[in-house]
Amino acid sequence: MNKDSRIYIAGHTGQIGYGLAKKLQSDGYENIILRTHDSLDLLNQKSVWDFFKKEKPEYVFYCAGVLGSIDYFVHERTAVIYNNLIMQANVIHSAVKNNVKKLLYVGSGSVYGSHASPPFQETAAIDSIQQGGMEAYSVAKIVGLELCKQYHGIDGRKCISVLPTHVYGTKNISRIKNTLVEEILQKMHQAKQEGVKELDLDIWGTGKKCIRQFIYLDDLVDALIYMMVNYDENLPVNIAPKEAVSLDELAHIIQEVVGYTGTLHYQTDKPEKADDRLMSVTYMQKQGWNPRYTLREGIQSFYTWYLDELQKKGKQVS
Fold it and tell me: Which domain covers residue 17, as residue numbers?
């Protein structure tokens, strides 16, 4: 993939696609193709086919998808599975049949089902389905992985997949509350500004038994570009830091970065989430990539960006 290659980002208005587009532009890539939903409906097979036939992208990053909260996944499960299945099928099929050199599909850690044993190995990505309201989304992302696997190698075309862990650090101020990290950070910043001494967070129980990995968006987009350039196998690659923390540890790291000195309260009337969904990073490291930021460094970098954005909007920060 060269600086003048024709690169299409599907889903460039979302968290990952938006960050990827900005990174590619800042790195000097000259021919980035972007389309909003109004100009290209990925659910429309003919429109997608005509787009690929006309624009002839050489490389495709598939970052599109229908996302939402657990509540949304439960109550809108038919829309979740249908829209995700159709969009990714239209893009992957049209890309391969219109001579795209390489497509990178951004999957999700949700493909690791309830019976998978952490740390999750890539070979277990389609062994079972995640439960607890995630079934429709999990199935759709599993199908996306299988589509890439089956289309990989046809007429020399390459379809690869990555599976990111929990992402934070959006570079779009209008989407600031999309993730747990961003929601907690914004709440603490506001509480600090208003002098609030006690703060309720949406963390169940003590927050000490729920273990997660979190990757900074800047690291993730670096990984996507690296894999597009350097990786050609059809086994998906986990994208995650080795570092893992409890939700309680996460909250206190954010508290220290923001400088909020009040008392934190969790949802102790809710059942303790005593689980971990850790992803193995061994295969990723074998490909020669590692994240640059620790969790604390990533949150600090994101908070600095957040304060700068607030100042641009004329809001007082301290």
Answer: 7-168+214-239
